[in-house]
Automatic annotation (TrEMBL):
It comes from the Archaea. InterPro entries: Glutaredoxin (IPR002109), Thioredoxin-like_sf (IPR036249). Residues 10-67 form the Glutaredoxin domain. CDD domains: TRX_superfamily. This is Thioredoxin. Signal peptide: none annotated.
Amino acid sequence: MDIMNLNLKLFYGQGCPHCKKMIKNLKELKEEFSFEVKKYEVYENEENRRKLEKISRGKCSGVPFIISQDKKDYICGSTSYEKTKEWLKEVLKEKEKIR
């Protein structure tokens, strides 16, 4: 699998300050790394809330919640830019191993 095809899912809540920070961090990180993010709003969208519950399977009960395409690596809750960057590097390194 080419790392250029890395897809992440971000579950967030409209008006959530931690989610807003995560979205900003990911936008900045896209300038350095190649990945796509599909966003799912969960406060107002019941279908997205059910997706979050199904995908997180008890790993995370809140937002922001970001998960890699293979559903192995995730971040739950408020995370700094630096920690998000390190997490992303690890996810990309794992993708490189299976390439």
